Amino acid sequence: MNICRKAPRSQNITEKVKPEHLALLVKTEWQLSYVTPLYQFRHTQLKTYARQLSAFIAAEKQQGLAVEVGGLQNTFKVSFSVLQGLAETNDDPETVLIQVQSKPMFARQEDPPKTVWSGWLSCINGNPEYLQSLPKDFTCLPLFCSKGAEGLSSLVKSWLQRTFDCCFGPLDINQTTLQWLAALWTNCHMETNIQKLKMIWTLPVVPPLQVTYTVDSDDALELWRSTRESSAEKSRGAEDEVTRFMQGLMSHFYRHFRVDLSAGELNQVSSALGSAKLNGKIKISSSRYLISIFSLLTECALLKMP
Amino acid sequence: MATLLNLSDSDHSGLSDQSVSTRSSNRSLRIAEQERRKNEAEDPFVLALKYFSEVEAGTPVTGNDELENNLVRVEKVAFSRGLSPEAISIMLDFAMSLRMGSSPCARVLKCLLPASVVPQEAVVRAIVWLTVRKLPTSTQVLFIKWVLTVFDMIDAKDKLRAIYGFIFSFVTDENLCPFICHLLYLLTRKENVRVFRVRKLLEQQSKLGRQPYLLYLLSLYKVFCPELVTLSIPSRMKSGFKNHISPWKSALIGVQRRNGVQVASGISLAFAVRDKTASRKRKHAHLELPPLSPVTIKEPQAAQGSSRKLVPMQQVQSFAQLLQNMHRIELPAQMGSLLGSSLALQYLDCVQDESALLRLNFWLGYALHEEFLFCSDGGANKNPEEALQFLNRLLSAQHFLQEGFNSSDAFLFKFLNVWDGSLLRPQILGLLSNIPVIPSSQIKALLFDPLMQLFFTSSLFFKCGLIECLNHMLLKWLTWHSAYALEDDLDISLNSHTSINITLSGFKDSVMELVHFVGRLASLGLQLEGCHSLLLSFILDFYETVCDTFLKFGLPLVVMPPPGVFYPAFFAADPISVDRLAFIMHRYKVNLTSAKRQEKVTEQAFHISRQTFREFNRYQVFLVNCLWNSNMCYPEAEVRLSDELLAQSGVPQFSTRFDLIHHPAFVSYALDFHHKCWPGRKDTDLNSIKQTKPWSWYLEYLFTQGFDGLKDFLQNNISRRVMMAGDRREDGTQSQELESAPQIKQPLLS
């Protein structure tokens, strides 16, 4: 990966993004996907898209029944909205949030509809060279995060695919990114209590061995600080710091249990600030480092582009 | 057939032409009939028709023998010959107007078998009668069924389309609805699809439930106006409209057969089943082609006016239609769907729409990456059958377009690094051979390094396959060069869709790199595989392409094969390899000579390096010395072993062992010739062939065995004089004679 990993800086995101929007993004576990550029996507036509998608969902849910587009849907209501302020650079298109609301079958008239599915398409700090190389018919929102029933996810995806001629593929959070998140969260302990840094490894033995490695946050921060100090003298990059931080954690584990974790695979990292899994599930509990994390994920998604 | 009819005005021109001709033939028939009428007493059939056209309203039916007799007459004609357009018109009018009540109506309808065509006016009039008079429901249904049956025989459809709204109003009739929907399906055009009609159909749907006929009509509406209605057809409902043609079908076929006309082969299945292979079990079916569906959300500025006339790609079913609608075809919502249709590819090739290609490339790249590189659900190893189909389809699309797709090239460069050389080998090699010219600065990293690794670690068959693939690649590059490169314009575009340009010298560098690379692979491959003759054959294929680059493809470049290829080919034990080597050397000579000549004529022409001429001459002298002069160990030879060493081998006259007689590839021919030449001789002395006369006979004999390469080589390099005066070939003077002979063109030694 040709990522320039600067030390993360905590941005004051609350000034840019509306708090109610931020509340929608944090504290939920998102399933990540990458998306190829959308053809003829217009931020100005979100209402039309909402009508189309709700008719599409209704038609797919009731196979063999035609549905008028724009007709009143009593089962599913779709809304598209722009999450203003999440884009970082001028090249980044604004983030788009999609919500599917539904009224439970036996709900009372006055009950508000419940959000049963939500997802968002975003591009935060996308590679400007790549973004500028696309013709203007294309909008690049490479990162797709979704939450809700699998069936609805695939319906929304298939509608987006048909409408904007794009493709969806699963985006896993690879080892490097997981390690980077572990270091990032440890670093946050200087400001907020992250309680514990928890990592789960699987080792390729028969039967498979799963190791849950929990480090006290103070100890982790101390290790991180010492890593950074020593690397500051040798003026090494941030990526190297992360590697050496992980090596420190692993050699500590080896001293105690004689198990070399580097032979296995890091599956999950979590702390009070959030959790991330290898299979592309991420949950962020604080908006503080949201932009850094999603910049990184945008980059991972762009690397998957054909 | 029926789906095509609602596309454009001219697409039924064939039908209307036909109707014109049948009409005129009817006219001549009529004249003949009139004459007959004068000669004979009046035809009872004509009288019967006259009766039906003139019968007064309210005439009683029961006990009316006249009606019965006339009806029987008409039926007789109808079931034997079919009814003329006029007769159909009269009878239909009689029945639908209910002049004699509704009881004879069904009987008349059942005998309305057209001999040629059905006049549109009659149908329109009958539909009008449908609203005016109270027909019994069963008769109404029978009438619409009849219209559906003869739909393809109606001479024109414009007036029927004009009363689309009128016909549409019948959908509210529960009994007629299934048949009206079918009729509307056949008539609908884009301008007929309106919001109020969609709503009316949806209203019917909520009243009647999920009826397939409503769904099929709505699905056609969706094709034309996806922004108005959406639906998804369950797979069990994909069979189409039921065929409502039973009462007439067999009788109609009989009539048509008797008349010797084939107007329409009955109504074809009006509903095109979208996707027959719907039974996909995979969760992420990235290798499935998306369906050919129209764009749902139109560009705001295009939504008015122009989009009315756009024709969705899905509706184009023949090349003729493609040509007619070329200017107003709407690309499908998902470009990946084009890959499945050669018509669509045809169109894609013509339009050169950058966005469209980019969309196709995104999809293709995504599918290939997911399947072969990310392997998110097992990948190609798990679904070899699907992957195979997909790649075959991609290959056939590339062959059709005669070029590759950017995304598949980019994918291949990544995939070669992880490929095991056996997974889907023919397909991957096929894709590889479609790769466009790579600039020489990148060719090593992208292509040569991964291929080199694969080549040396894989089986003989892979080696052969790879050499063949590289030969195809070279051929494509050269063909592309000869097709696109203009002499005065050195900048040539790499591929008709990209803007990357490459200069002529850049192109030459790339070709040279490729040829040298194959030379290296070939030399080492032959060593590794013990000069296997199969591998050698593929290598010689490659050099047959290389030796003709100048004359066949106009590329001013001549690259000689490395010694590692030349000598194994010459020492090969099979005569075919030696013959092909001789042919290749002959073509090299022809190319070099003509390049030399051109260099003299046009001053600025390219320069072939002295090194190339030197290599060529060295090989040439070697070949002539070995084959012709029986002197392998001449002083300047490139391959030289000390005489002592050769003497130790115990082979007598080692220097002559590779002449045309003793060469292992030809010795059997020499023996055969010897037997034929001197049948009585008991002791075989092959050297006796070397005398003047037997020698020239021997050559003739070899040439008749099909060694054309050898023939070309010898006839062009050994002058006639030498050929004839070869009596003292054994002595050392031969080589001098050869050197001074005009056959080895001295100018080549520039």
TrEMBL record, chain A:
<keyword id="KW-0539">Nucleus</keyword>
<dbReference type="GO" id="GO:0005634">
    <property type="term" value="C:nucleus"/>
</dbReference>
<keyword id="KW-0137">Centromere</keyword>
<comment type="similarity">
    <text>Belongs to the CENP-L/IML3 family.</text>
</comment>
<dbReference type="InterPro" id="IPR025204">
    <property type="entry name" value="CENP-L"/>
</dbReference>
<protein>
    <recommendedName>
        <fullName>Centromere protein L</fullName>
    </recommendedName>
</protein>
<dbReference type="GO" id="GO:0000775">
    <property type="term" value="C:chromosome, centromeric region"/>
</dbReference>
<dbReference type="Pfam" id="PF13092">
    <property type="entry name" value="CENP-L"/>
</dbReference>
<keyword id="KW-0158">Chromosome</keyword>
UniProtKB/TrEMBL annotation, chain B:
<dbReference type="GO" id="GO:0005634">
    <property type="term" value="C:nucleus"/>
</dbReference>
<feature type="region of interest" description="Disordered">
    <location>
        <begin position="727"/>
        <end position="750"/>
    </location>
</feature>
<dbReference type="InterPro" id="IPR012485">
    <property type="entry name" value="CENP-I"/>
</dbReference>
<feature type="compositionally biased region" description="Polar residues">
    <location>
        <begin position="15"/>
        <end position="28"/>
    </location>
</feature>
<dbReference type="GO" id="GO:0000939">
    <property type="term" value="C:inner kinetochore"/>
</dbReference>
<dbReference type="GO" id="GO:0034080">
    <property type="term" value="P:CENP-A containing chromatin assembly"/>
</dbReference>
<comment type="similarity">
    <text>Belongs to the CENP-I/CTF3 family.</text>
</comment>
<keyword id="KW-0539">Nucleus</keyword>
<dbReference type="Pfam" id="PF07778">
    <property type="entry name" value="CENP-I"/>
</dbReference>
<feature type="region of interest" description="Disordered">
    <location>
        <begin position="1"/>
        <end position="36"/>
    </location>
</feature>
<keyword id="KW-0158">Chromosome</keyword>
<protein>
    <submittedName>
        <fullName>Centromere protein I</fullName>
    </submittedName>
</protein>
<dbReference type="GO" id="GO:0000070">
    <property type="term" value="P:mitotic sister chromatid segregation"/>
</dbReference>
<keyword id="KW-0137">Centromere</keyword>
